[in-house]
Design brief:
Number of domains of chain B: 1
CATH topology of chain B: Four Helix Bundle (Hemerythrin (Met), subunit A)
Strand content of chain B: under 5%
CATH architecture of the largest domain in chain A: Sandwich
Radius of gyration of chain B: 22 Å
Oligomer: heterotetramer
CATH architecture of chain B: Up-down Bundle
Order of helices and strands of chain A: HHHHEEEEEEEEEEHHHHHEEHH
Order of helices and strands of chain B: HHHHHH
Strand order of the largest sheet of chain A: 3-2-1-5-8
CATH topology of the largest domain in chain A: Immunoglobulin-like
Chains: A alpha+beta, B mainly alpha, C mainly alpha, D mainly alpha
Structural class of chain B: mainly alpha
Helix content of chain A: 40-55%
Number of helices of chain A: 11
CATH superfamily of the largest domain in chain A: Cupredoxins -  blue copper proteins
Number of strands of chain A: 12
Largest interface: A-C, 85 and 96 residues
Mean pLDDT of chain B: 84
CATH class of the largest domain in chain A: Mainly Beta
Mean pLDDT of chain A: 81
Radius of gyration of chain A: 28 Å
Distance between the termini of chain B: 57 Å
Shape of chain A: elongated
Largest sheet of chain A: 5 strands, mixed
């Protein structure tokens, strides 16, 4: 049986997982290696249990020439053996646990210079938002090869899930919560993005394609999508809060911020808190720090983004906001604050 | 003893071997254990919702959420004392019965029922005056669900006490035989101590 | 506590209830644990059948990537009913209500469970719950899977109200049964039956009762919150009003992970009874098996979040759950190895029941191994909510629970009916079931790894070949069960009389006639040793030590 | 004296009275044995804690913060 196990292990070792289901993202996470390791120890367990069952079933089968009341040997247990098969699996699980833990923390580690993309689940489509693109879009999207990506995922309605099988990573898109998924696409190709969490009658068809392309192709696609952004960034200068226009701010708010924020009291949470009365409501603890917030504080948060215990908000670049946009937004927020 | 002893089996088997008859009878008394397990499983019900309340609290930036107010803590304390006091009277009633002082037992049970009912009244008053709604906020969801569940238990407890009182007037319970009363008292204590936790959770913490 | 002699004896010893005469008191509103066990067996058996039909409907739909056999709506209802019926209305009542009720009191030498009337009440929560659930088909069925995660389950209309009510109702019965069983095991054991002399099925029933007692109430609160969310618009799960959707997953899985063990631990007990009986030797490592049952139960309350590794708990929360989930492999491994070791030096009778148990050993091992894989968070990130998960759960619940249950049916059938089943038909049944079970569920691992999510009415055409193969195997698997029904009916009509102890077993239920008389034991037996001492005299007081332990089938 | 102060006073005095009896019972039962007594002891202990809660509220030591950021 040891021989059969060994053969199985060798077969697993040379079994090209990558050919069956290509890894298209950086494999530094070691998910495939971990999976193979499990198959290595699974093989002998499986072979030995089944092998002994079959062997004993043949070897000790009751034979016709034996008396009808024949019994087996009166063996109640062998303590050393029992200790062995308690301790050995426990040790194995410790090894596996440590390996998994190391891999796990690697999965959560953001990479420097990552491209921040947002994916928002809807019934039954994926909405994508890119930094520098004025508006979001649904459906196919592009990622440049070999550039780390931080995917900020959430949902607008029910729980969805973000899974690209070839990337090996999956997280749920939970309404009211932003999760980050870190990966680096390493193979050019078209891969399915699949929703795996049941989300209603359209669940089965909630698929789209992620195109991993060369940097040049990505730039070409991106500039095609960019269109109006160029004009906006040309006019962008230094932040001038005094020049903010309420009506323009309102338009931007409804287009962008309203995805995550309500224009209502602080507790009226969507993804982030409600933003009405942001200048006067003591409930905005991170803004206040004891003193009333200034327009500069608010503008700073919009520009730099926010990360803390009430959630994560991308910065102005990721949200595609120019300096004048920020000024307009602050003006609008101020007008809504009592 | 009107039991068919020939069917009991101790004449033939145990009673003089593995177990004495007293041990055997003690072993076979299932009611208390059964009732205890019931209380245990009931407490899980509350525990789950208390966990939910704490979870909602941890997910909220401020607690209670803006625009929602906790119930009045001072009146709440008075109300809590009514319920805690009823626990004491229930305890007294039990002792009086064990001491064969039936009149004392009856009066203390009536006091328990009145205090329990007053508590329910206090809860109703609180529900009418609190600045929160069941469907309005996570605080409301946790508060009304848990206190409502508890109020339901108090209500059942009051009914239970009334039933035991009527039964005892008919002579069901004696100083030696009063399992139903032990159960009622324990249940009442259980309802009491749940409020110790809920009072802390919603009024103080 | 005053020991009220007459009252206690009245309740537990003397046959104050004469054997009921009327049909209704005898077979419908019976308080006899054996009749209640059979009632549970029939109803939960029907539910398993019905659930199987829903599964076949799912497989018909999945024969083609964009099949029109079912609309997505109907498909969602089908897998919701499949899961709900199988877990709460099929398997749990089967392993606790049916096997626990019939076998456990007999094995501890009791005349009935601790609270016979409560037992009857527990059963009679079950048929109404079935009716509530099935009636939802007429009003708008629940359609978000047996897990019913909000918010999607709250969109589904009135179905969720039926679903929560039905599961709540059957949960009341399950809790009361657990309360009853735990009291029975603690209080009603025959004199001399210490904890270490209890048959392992009794251990399993007691531990399951503890699990059920703690967890089912937690489920009730989760169902309650879902009910309130739908009916009274309470914002437990509405982020815009401060709720959080992950809360439901915590509350649900705090029940539903132990529920998996409620499903499998009694089967561990069944297997631990069948193996020594047919190996004709003591179970290997009795104490370690009992201890591992208890430790599995303890661990099962600390691992619920491994169903939520992708739900955004963060690394520091998932880490302890991952480690604890992996540790469950240790006690489970102990059991598998001990059962295998029991076969060593045996005098093995390969009856149908034994074959199913050996099949259980094989398939459950696979389910256990894939369980370890899913416990590792990084690998789970790839495999979660795919067909790999579906394959895993079916290797555990079909290859584990159902295989063990069928083994148990073949094993205790003569005790319940007094007649033997056909061994040759049974062996055909085993081989067909075993082969088509693996043909159905083994490929699901691969479809899942390749990227097919679960609960999809439509799928990527790339997976059509494998899915077609799976579906055909599933139809044949269903067909193999016809042999069981044929066998059962044949046995009832023409089966040979079984006698009290056809298998030559040594636990107490085989020491009395088949089927057992009303009130089981005329005199309460005394127990002097473990039941598994094959080759030694029976460790019971007269007259229970005079039954032949030579197999006569 | 407004309602809040009245309620405080009643609450505090009530807490002391009820707590006194609870402690007395607890002391009485402490040495007794039996399953129901054991449970009663636990219940009475919790009851004493409840009285302390109510007393602290009555003395305005806890429960006075309208908002808390966790």
């Amino acid at each position: 049986m040891a021989a059969i196990s060994a053969i199985l292990i060798v077969l697993i070792a040379i079994w090209p997982i990558n050919n069956t289901l290509a890894v298209a993202a950086t494999s530094d996470y070691g998910i495939d290696a971990l999976f193979k390791f499990m198959l290595y120890f699974a093989a002998p367990i499986f072979v030995f249990v089944n092998g002994y069952v079959l062997y004993f079933a043949r070897r000790y089968k009751h034979r016709r020439d034996e008396p009808a009341d024949a019994v087996g040997i009166p063996l109640y247990g062998v303590v050393p053996l029992e200790i062995w098969w308690t301790v050995l699996p426990a040790l194995l699980m410790v090894v596996l646990g440590i390996w998994s833990a190391v891999t796990l923390f690697g999965l959560y580690k953001p990479q420097a210079g990552a491209l921040n993309v947002e994916a928002i689940g809807h019934q039954w489509k994926f909405e994508l938002r890119y930094p520098g693109l004025k508006s979001s879009f649904y459906g196919d999207f592009y990622l440049p090869i070999d550039r780390p990506v931080t995917m900020n995922i959430t949902s607008a309605d029910v729980v969805h899930s973000f899974w690209v099988p070839q990337f090996r990573v999956k997280l749920d898109m939970v309404p009211g919560m932003v999760q980050q998924l870190h990966f680096t696409p390493t193979q050019i190709g078209n891969y399915p993005l699949v929703c795996t969490e049941f989300c209603g009658i359209g669940h089965g068809d909630m698929r789209t394609t992620v195109h991993v392309v060369s940097q040049a192709d990505y730039d070409k696609w991106f500039s095609g999508e960019q269109q109006q952004v160029a004009a906006a960034s040309a006019s962008a200068g230094a932040l001038n809060l005094a020049a903010g226009v309420v009506s323009k701010g309102q338009a931007i708010f409804e287009q962008k911020c309203a995805v995550c924020h309500n224009m209502a009291g602080f507790a009226q949470k969507k993804v982030g808190p409600g933003l009405q009365n942001i200048f006067s409501d003591p409930a905005h603890p991170k803004l206040v720090d004891g003193s009333a917030p200034t327009p500069e504080d608010v503008a700073g948060i919009i520009e730099k983004g926010y990360s803390g215990d009430i959630g994560v908000m991308p910065n102005a670049q990721a949200n595609g906001l120019s300096s004048s946009d920020v000024a307009n937004l602050v003006a609008y927020l101020k007008s809504q604050s009592k | 003893m009107t039991v068919h002893t020939e069917a009991l089996g101790h004449e033939h088997g145990h009673g003089h071997g593995i177990m004495t008859q007293e041990e055997y009878i003690e072993q076979r008394d299932t009611r208390f254990l059964g009732f205890l397990l019931f209380l245990f499983t009931d407490s899980i019900f509350f525990t789950a919702y208390i966990f939910a309340a704490l979870y909602l609290r941890s997910a909220a930036p401020v607690w209670p959420p803006v625009g929602v107010e906790r119930p009045d803590v001072n009146l709440g304390a008075v109300n809590a004392i009514l319920l805690f006091g009823s626990g004491i009277t229930a305890h007294y009633a039990m002792h009086r019965l064990k001491e064969s002082r039936i009149a004392g037992y009856i009066w203390f049970t009536i006091a328990t029922i009145i205090l329990g009912s007053l508590f329910l009244g206090g809860q109703a008053y609180e529900y009418a005056h609190i600045h929160a709604t069941w469907s309005g906020s996570s605080f409301g969801a946790a508060f009304f669900t848990l206190t409502g569940l508890h109020g339901f238990h108090v209500f059942v407890g009051v009914i239970y006490l009334i039933v035991t009182l009527l039964q005892s007037l008919g002579g069901t319970y004696t100083p030696e035989r009063h399992f139903g009363l032990t159960a009622a008292t324990l249940y009442w204590h259980f309802v009491d101590v749940i409020w110790v936790v809920l009072f802390f959770l919603f009024y103080i913490y | 506590m005053s020991t009220d002699t007459i009252e206690i004896l009245r309740r537990t010893e003397a046959p104050i209830h004469p054997a009921p005469e009327s049909f209704v008191r005898k077979y419908i509103f019976s308080i006899d644990h054996k009749v209640i066990g059979v009632q549970y067996f029939i109803v939960s058996g029907l539910m398993i059948l019905l659930s199987g039909l829903f599964a076949e409907a799912i497989r018909v739909q999945l024969t083609a990537p964009h099949n029109t056999f079912l609309t997505p709506q109907q498909f969602d209802e089908a897998f919701t009913f499949h899961g709900t019926l199988m877990v709460w209305f099929g398997a749990i009542p089967m392993v606790t209500g049916a096997f626990g009720n019939f076998v456990m009191p007999l094995q501890i030498g009791a005349r009935d469970v601790a609270f016979p009337w409560l037992n009857m009440f527990s059963f009679w929560t079950f048929p109404p719950a079935v009716l509530i659930l099935l009636s939802s088909l007429a009003f708008g069925a629940p359609n978000s899977g047996w897990t019913e995660y909000p918010p999607v389950s709250l969109q589904a209309g009135v179905g969720i109200v039926f679903w929560t009510t039905a599961v709540f109702t059957v949960g009341i019965g399950a809790t009361l049964t657990a309360l009853n069983f735990l009291t029975t095991v603690i209080k009603m054991r025959a004199p001399g039956m210490t904890f270490t002399r209890m048959p392992l099925f009794v251990w399993a029933s007691a531990v399951t009762a503890v699990l059920s007692l703690v967890a089912t109430t937690a489920l009730a609160s989760a169902l309650g919150s879902l009910f309130l969310s739908h009916v009274f618009n309470v914002p437990f799960y509405d982020p815009s009003r401060g709720g959080t959707v992950v809360l439901f997953q915590h509350m649900f899985w705090f029940y539903s992970h132990p529920a998996v063990y409620i499903l499998i631990i009694p089967v561990f007990g069944i297997v631990s009874e069948i193996i020594p009986t047919f190996a004709r030797k003591p179970i290997f490592g009795y104490k370690l098996i009992a201890f591992s049952t208890v430790s599995i139960a303890l661990l099962s309350f600390m691992v619920w979040a491994h169903h939520m590794f992708t739900s955004g708990l963060g690394p520091w929360v998932t880490l302890p759950f991952m480690i604890l989930s992996m540790l469950i492999a240790v006690p489970t491994g102990i059991k598998i190895f001990s059962w295998t070791a029991t076969l060593f030096g045996s005098n093995l009778r390969l009856t149908t029941a034994m074959l199913f148990v050996l099949g259980f050993l094989s398939t459950f091992t696979i389910g256990g191994i894939t369980g370890i894989m899913l416990a590792s968070v990084p690998v789970d990130w790839h495999e979660h909510a795919t067909y790999f998960l579906v394959a895993h759960i079916h290797y555990v619940l079909f290859g584990g629970t159902l295989m063990g249950v069928i083994g148990g049916v073949y094993y205790w059938w003569p005790k319940v009916t007094g007649r033997l089943m056909s061994e040759s038909l049974g062996k055909w049944h085993f081989w067909l079931t075993f082969i088509f079970f693996n043909a159905t569920f083994l490929p699901m691992h691969f479809v899942g790894l390749l990227g097919m999510p679960r609960r999809v009415a439509y799928y990527d055409p790339a997976f059509q070949g494998l899915n077609l193969f799976i579906s055909i195997s599933a139809f044949l698997l269903a067909g193999s069960f016809l042999l069981l029904f044929v066998n059962a009916f044949w046995s009832l009509k023409k089966g040979a009389a079984a006698g009290p102890n056809p298998w030559g077993a040594r636990t107490l239920e085989w020491m009395i006639p088949s089927p057992p008389p009303y009130y089981n034991f005329k005199e309460t037996p005394e127990v002097y040793a473990t039941p598994y001492g094959y080759g030694e005299p029976l460790p019971y007081s007269a007259p229970y030590n005079s039954v032949s332990t030579t197999p006569t089938y | 004296m407004d309602t809040a102060h009245l309620a405080d006073t009643i609450g505090a005095i009530g807490a002391i009275v009820v707590g006194f009896f609870a402690v007395r019972f607890l002391r009485k039962e402490w040495k007794l044995k039996g399953a129901d007594i054991g449970i009663t002891k636990v219940m009475l202990t919790l009851l004493v804690i409840g009285c302390v809660e109510a007393l602290l509220v009555g003395l305005r030591i806890v429960g006075q913060t309208p908002l808390s950021t966790h």
